[in-house]
Structures are given as structure tokens and as C-alpha cells.
Amino acid sequence: MMKEIEVIGVDIGQEGEGIAKTDSGYTVFVPYLLPGESAYIALLEQGAHFGKGEILELKTESKLRQKALCPVYYECGGCQLQHLSYQGQLQWKEKKVKDSLTRLAGINAPQVSPIIGMETPWYYRNRGQFVIGEENGTLRWGFFTSKTHKVVSFKECPIHHRYLNEAMQDLIPQLSGLHSFFEGDGTLRHVSVRCGVNTEEVLATLVTTEPLGQSNTLDCSKIKRAVGLVENINKTKSSKILGEKEKTLCGRPYLEEKLMGLRYLISSQSFFQNNTEQTEKLYQKVLQYAKPKGKRILDLYSGIGSISLALAKEALDVVGIEIVKAAVRDAKANAKLNGIENVRFHTLDVADAFKQEKTPPDVLVMDPPRKGIEKRVLADVLKLTPQTIVYVSCNPDTLARDLRILKEKYELIEATPIDVFPQTTHVETVVLLSRVDK
Ligand SMILES: C[S@@+](CC[C@H](N)C(=O)[O-])C[C@H]1O[C@@H](n2cnc3c(N)ncnc32)[C@H](O)[C@@H]1O
After folding, report:
1. Are 83 and 423 in contact (CB under 8 A)?
2. Is the distance from the beta carbon of residue 270 to the nearest atom of ligand 1 less than 6 Å?
3. Which residue lies with its CA nearest to atom 14 of ligand 1?
4. Which of 177, 206, 268, 392 is an S-S bond match for 367, by CB 3.0 to 4.6 Å?
5. Same topology between domain 88-120+275-435 and domain 127-259
6. Domain coordinates in residue numbering, the chain
7. pLDDT tens readout for residues 352-396
8. How far is the CA of 346 from the CAs of 147, 199, 286, 316, in angstroms?
9. 308 CA from centroid of ligand 1 (Å)
10. Is any ligand 1 atom within 6 A of the Cβ of residue 376?
11. What pLDDT score does 221 carry?
12. Catalytic residues
């Protein structure tokens, strides 16, 4: 028989789930329970060390609880913290960064500045990758639910920029006649759509299992702000959204964005930070920490060169290292577009970066993906020992793991969390490290 018990929320986990304790100190994971709240829950699973439960009744509600803005929030799983006020989200993220640096990196009383949040933490994402579903022969767009392979669809998503919502509302009717790969017998898998928030440009990429061929009558002019429509073929069974092969169906295969007084060309496969407004604040912090004037800078994981170019305006020279060919192509085009000549970009795995760059730069900038930096790369950094490191991280846990290694020769001067992903559990952190000369 299902057990009913009383618990108190003590923290929030990686996926936004409440972490709760019983009277006897037993830990139970309870979705949507907030710290400080007490609740009657159904204990659905009971293991030796922890269990899983579901709220039956909230006995006391946190002052930080709020009504979710999105009508499908509890089904969708795309964001995890809409039930927590924005002030509560910022407090929790700042604490998470502090905790990771203290517990996982083993840094005593780390210097963490107040988190930099957004004034309006909605409609911010500049890229959406929506699943295409189908109901009674009509196409719909949305996300897979967090638990099942069902599509939750909506008219608009309140964390995606309104340019993306409007483009999707225009594009979906143009696709009638085509069918969903996931919920029909068709070829349409996803639409990946991106916007230049400061340029009002939209680029949409249709991901299909087969080329559209004759059935393509798509017209960019019917999609608000669209400068291009690209077809991307993904025949695989994997959960990876984009395939390798692309063809431009109309317009151009890239969009332009303006940031930090620079122009950037971004093609559909390249990485670009998801929140334009917060990215500007993030890059300002990188500049403040790097103090690039007259310095030689190595930028690892350089993407389309956005950080490299922002630094190059003041630096003596900058070298960017990035593994994705298309991103390096964009980075070189971006340098040209902005008339910046003191920067070089190499298509390389960072693991090979130090074969190319043997003299230590004055400043090393590293902005790795969520999984953090490989141990052998950290070992190379400890051999090269540049004076200053600016580490940009989108995952406090891997950041802390890497800092525990770099601590051998570096001290943390300051860390600044930046909320680039409101309504989700993610947080970006910029860290300044300085070599300890013994
Ligand atoms: C978080 S993004 C940072 C991009 C860029 N700094 C920016 O602000 O837009 C991480 C980048 O690292 C690249 N990357 C991932 N693994 C890599 C590796 N082993 N070597 C070089 N680049 C890599 C990805 O392609 C991606 O562009």
C-alpha cells in the first residue's frame, strides 16, 4: 500500500526537484516542493538511503512560491523553477555556486559577488529547438515531456523570445501537407529557430529525415523577420537534434546579431549564448577580469569568436581554439566583418591546443561545455601556467571539479554568477584565477 508521510523541504536538486527530510532525517525527493515548506506526500519509492515522493497536500507554503506563468509548465519539463519567485531563483543559484566552490572545489570562504539577474526574466531565449508533433492530422510544435516521449504543445513559450514564438506561429501553417516523424508517418522531426534580438533577424532550420524535394514551397517572406530557411537532414535514431547535411531552402543560411559594439554572423549549427541581454553582461565581466589592454590572450572553446573579438578590441593579440569547423568559419568571417586583424582562429581540439601555442599567454580564457574541461587539458594549463585565467562555466559542479585541480597553482580571486537561464536550474559563472607564485 502507498505510504503517506510528512516531510519538510530543505533544498532544491539539480533537476529542480525538492529535497525533503522526514522527522527521522530520511531524504525524499519531491518534485515542486520548496525549501521551508512542509507537506503530506505519497512515498512512491523507498530505497535504503533515499526515497521519491509526490505532494498530496502542502501544509505550509513558502513565501517564495509563485503561480507558474506557463499553462503547460507542470507537463512540459522545459523549465524547472517557474513555481519559485525570481528573487528565490536568484538566491538559490547564488547559494548553489557558493556551495559548489566550497564543498566540491574545497575553497574556503570563496569570494562570490552577488548574482547578476535579469530585470524581466521572460521571453529571453534567442534559440528554440522545438519538436514537431501531430494531432488529428494537424501539425503542432512543443517539447517532449520530461518523463514520456509525448509532445506537449503550446501557442507560445514564455521563455523563448517573442520573435521565435511569432516565427513558429507563421511557419507551422506553411508546413501543412507534411507529417510528423514522431507522431505521424512523416519526415518532420524538429524546427530549430534562432533570432538576432538586436537585429530583428530570424533563421529557421527544418530538421527532416528526408529532403523535402518537390514538396518544398516554403517562402521566407511569409515568416515574420525570417532572413533564411535551412533544411537539415537527420536520419539517425539518436536524440541529437541536428544532422550534418544542410541545404538553404530560401534566403541565407546565417543570421546577424550585434553585441558589444560588434557584428556577428551565426550559422544554424554554431553555438551562440542563448540569452542575448545577459551575454552582454557576461562578456563585460570577462573583459573586467581579463583586463585585455596590450595583452596576449588565448581563448579556448571560442565558438564563433564572440569572446575573442570582444577582447581583441583592446588586446595585443588573441588566439581562439574551437573544434567545430563551421563555428571557426563564422569566427574568421566575424573578424573580417568587424575589421579586426589581431586575432587568429584554429579548428582544433583544445587537447591539442598547447602543441600549437607553446608560449604562455598573459591571459587564458576558457569557456567549456557543461561537462567542463578534460583532465589532460587542465594538466597542460598547469604546465603552461599563464598569470591569469578567466573561466566561464555553465555548470557549477564541473567548474568546482576543475578548480579543485587548478587550485594546485591558482587562487580564486572572485566568482560572479550570472543568470543566463531564468526559470531553469542552470546558472553561468565567470571566475577570475590568479597564479600563486611561491
Ligand atoms: C559554451 S561554448 C562557448 C563558446 C563561446 N566562447 C561563446 O561565448 O559563444 C563551448 C564551445 O566549445 C566547443 N568545444 C567543445 N569541445 C571542444 C573541444 N574538445 N575542443 C575545442 N572546442 C570544443 C563547442 O563547439 C562550443 O563552441
Report:
1. no
2. no
3. 301
4. 392
5. no
6. 3-62, 88-120+275-435, 127-259
7. 988 776 788 999 999 999 999 999 999 999 999 999 999 999 999
8. 40, 28, 21, 18
9. 12
10. no
11. 92
12. 394
Residue 421, amino acid = F
pLDDT at 214: 64
Residue 249's Cα: distance from chain center in Å? 28
Question: Strand, helix or coil at 183?
Answer: coil
- Percent of the chain scoring above 90 in pLDDT: 85
* Ligand 1 atom with least separation from CA of 368: 10
Class of domain 88-120+275-435: alpha beta
Residue with cell 562555466: 393
Mean predicted confidence (pLDDT) in 62-83: 94
Residue to mutate (ligand 1; options 271, 350, 376, 402; most atoms within 8 A of CB): 271
Residue nearest to atom 25 of ligand 1 (CA): 324
Q: What is the pTM of this model?
A: 0.92
Residue 404's pLDDT is what? 98
State if residue 302 touches ligand 1 by the CB under 6 angstroms criterion: yes
- Kindly state if the Cβ of 272 falls inside 6 Å of ligand 1: yes
What are the pLDDT digits (tens) for 219-272? 899 999 999 999 999 998 888 899 989 999 999 999 999 999 999 999 888 889
Q: Alpha-carbon distance 324 to 330, whole Å?
A: 10
423: left (phi over 0), alpha (psi -120 to 50) or beta: left
Q: Which CATH class is domain 127-259?
A: mainly beta
